[in-house]
């Protein structure tokens, strides 16, 4: 899993951030749309902190180098149908 990747964890350690924060920040700096989600209040707060730091150009390159052309979300259309019934209070 990407959260356990050595490069991601090395970068996270240098910035005092979690792997999730580093991954989200990388997406933001690359200009990708990100829609992080969580029901955990602490994780929601962490998601906001990705705007409070910037990854160096070298760190951005290291993360780009991880591209193994593999998907990290492998859900199917059918498995995603459960979200049609989801309500915010769930």
Descriptive report:
With 90 residues, this protein is mostly helical. It has one domain (2-85). Helix content is 47%, strand content 0%. It is built from 5 helices and no strands. It has helices at 6-15, 19-30, 41-48, 57-64, 77-80. The chain is globular, with a radius of gyration of 15 Å. 14% of the residues are buried. The model has no long low-confidence stretch (mean pLDDT 84).
Features:
mainly alpha, single chain, 5 helices, 90 residues
Helix-strand layout with pairing:
Elements: H1 6-15, H2 19-30, H3 41-48, H4 57-64, H5 77-80
Can I get a quick summary?
With 90 residues, this protein is mainly α. It is built from five helices and no strands.
